[in-house]
Design the sequence.
């Protein structure tokens, strides 16, 4: 389906702009893998595009308005040129669907995240009939069956691999169940085949993705099974996964940290709040006691394991004690890298109509939370100064004067590497650091596996 070539499109160029999470980045790459089959080449220049595709995210505030603002920019750029084919994909496309075509006539196609397998046929149909189309049915099975027939040509040292989509948790603040649909786990062998292809084409690290990645369950195979099987690929040196839910942090997954030699020691486990009262109001389905139990188990397995998280500050009903509970949790766990935001309601969610707390209070609380989170992050980076750590080299810096890679904890590292280091794990002595980046010098090159 959609694999036939279009002789009229052989010189067509597509510009893809991606908002949001790593899953959107993965989707954008796979969309391009698909449209290549009908003759599209990728361009990094707006002005030479025959097709402009905006892959959208609905998680952050004003996501919808950002889309229309972006389309406004495109209209200005192409005011004196032939209009490109304009496609909106992603979660805003799913949430708004037909409304987008009505509100902005410049948009030609609206395609939801579970309909990417239809993108080639949709483009060809529009090219032939010039009839605007909206494709937003939930059909993850057909989508991944189709994508499994098209090779993942990301070609990156660190490559994303989506294993699971959708969510059945229905947190009261979240739109994902409505924009990505119910939880769906891709077939086990399909994922392993894609991992093997990525490894054969230069990937040294695989990042397994899902809205609830640790809810993965396909015919009895869990995330732990995927990790242990992907670990068998000799080309793969590192494995990560995101984003996980505390409720799905099962014993088999925790146990993998005992045996795996390639699973990185950073656990991104969004807690959202340190207050059980607020967690219940959010419908998070986990308690702080359960969260701390998972933390303790993992720390006992490997003291080097560190945590990162997400926090929603100023959720409706958050009182001073609830905020203090969140602050205390951060002090206890010392998250080394986290995201924190003031609550903003999303249309269609349970929390949309809840009474907001005073904005001034939310801002003050967020500043306090971000201050302590930053202190933890800076302290962690400072603690590495003078030490030798393993870095997976991903590329050279833009001016080609330095190499860029990441530590086991996903921290960016810039050092005096060279092009031949790309794809290797090298040992770097850290000389300096700031809040986000480590700076160092290579002391030796090796292809050693990392613990």
Sequence:
């Amino acid at each position: 389906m959609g694999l036939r070539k279009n002789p009229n499109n052989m010189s067509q160029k597509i510009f893809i702009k991606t908002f949001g999470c790593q899953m959107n980045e993965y989707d954008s790459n796979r969309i391009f893998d698909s449209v290549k089959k009908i003759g599209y080449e990728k361009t990094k220049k707006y002005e030479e595009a025959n097709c402009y595709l905006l892959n959208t995210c609905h998680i952050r505030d004003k996501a919808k308005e950002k889309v229309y603002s972006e389309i406004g920019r495109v209209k200005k750029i192409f005011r004196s040129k032939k209009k490109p084919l304009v496609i909106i994909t992603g979660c805003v496309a799913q949430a708004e669907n037909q409304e987008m075509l009505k509100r902005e006539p410049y948009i030609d196609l609206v395609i939801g995240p579970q309909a990417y397998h239809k993108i080639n046929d949709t483009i060809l149909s529009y090219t032939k009939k010039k009839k605007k189309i909206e494709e937003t049915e939930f059909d993850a099975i057909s989508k991944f069956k189709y994508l499994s027939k098209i090779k993942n040509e990301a070609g990156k040292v660190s490559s994303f691999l989506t294993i699971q989509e959708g969510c059945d948790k229905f947190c009261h603040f979240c739109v994902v169940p409505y924009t990505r649909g119910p939880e769906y786990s891709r077939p086990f062998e399909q994922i392993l085949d894609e991992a093997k292809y990525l490894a054969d084409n230069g990937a040294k690290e695989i990042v397994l993705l899902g809205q609830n990645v640790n809810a993965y369950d396909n015919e009895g195979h869990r995330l732990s099974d995927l990790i242990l099987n992907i670990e068998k690929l000799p080309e793969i040196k590192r494995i990560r996964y995101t984003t996980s839910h505390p409720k799905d942090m099962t014993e088999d997954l925790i146990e993998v940290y005992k045996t795996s030699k390639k699973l990185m020691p950073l656990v991104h486990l969004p807690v959202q709040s340190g207050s059980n009262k607020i967690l219940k109001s959010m419908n998070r389905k986990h308690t702080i006691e359960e969260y701390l139990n998972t933390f303790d188990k993992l720390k006992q397995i490997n003291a080097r394991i560190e945590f990162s998280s997400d926090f929603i500050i100023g959720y409706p009903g958050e009182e001073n004690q609830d905020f203090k509970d969140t602050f205390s949790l951060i002090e206890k766990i010392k998250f080394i890298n986290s995201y924190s935001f003031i609550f903003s309601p999303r249309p269609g969610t349970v929390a949309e109509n809840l009474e907001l707390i005073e904005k001034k209070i939310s801002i003050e609380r967020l500043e306090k939370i971000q201050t302590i989170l930053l202190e933890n992050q800076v302290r962690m980076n400072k603690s590495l100064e003078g030490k030798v750590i393993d870095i997976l080299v991903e590329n050279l810096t833009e001016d080609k004067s330095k190499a860029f890679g990441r530590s086991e904890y996903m921290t960016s590292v810039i050092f005096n590497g060279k092009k031949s280091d790309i794809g290797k794990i090298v040992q770097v002595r850290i000389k300096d650091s700031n809040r986000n980046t480590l700076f160092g010098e290579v002391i030796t090159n090796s292809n050693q596996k990392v613990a």
Q: What stands out?
A: The chain has a mean pLDDT of 92.
